[in-house]
Amino acid sequence: MLNYVWFFLAAVFEIAGCYGFWMWLRQGKSAWWVVPAVLSLAAFALLLTKVEATYAGRAYAAYGGTYIIASIAWLAVVERIRPLSSDWVGVGLCVLGATVILLGPRFSSN
Predict the structure, then answer these.
(1) What are 40-59's pLDDT values in tens digits?
(2) Which of 10, 31, 48, 53 is most buried per CB count within 10 Å?
(3) What's the predicted TM-score (pTM) here?
(4) 90 sits in which H/E element
(5) Region 79-95: what's the mean pLDDT?
(6) CA neighbours within 13 Å on the CB side: how many for 48?
(7) Is 61 exposed, middle or buried (0-12, 13-18, 19+ CB in 10 A)?
(8) Which domain holds residue 47?
């Protein structure tokens, strides 16, 4: 369960970092937006290492589901755009997939 806390925090920092670059390059804001963006992306990377997974690739794949939840929440809260029903269906599917990747049984490929 603690993995989801790390995933959520990492997602917030990743989205915030990317948003800083978005604001600078796409919205014409000051280049100073890059400073907190880079710090936020560094925090994202550090937080993702807290996930209890044997392999980094599996942790990153499972993180994707949480990132999608946070992205849709960001859309609603920060950008004030109401998510569509299909957005929430997609979120549910992604979270289910992330859970299977992170917690599912391990089958041998041999």
Answers:
(1) 999 999 998 888 877 778 77
(2) 10
(3) 0.76
(4) helix 85-103
(5) 93
(6) 23
(7) middle
(8) 2-103
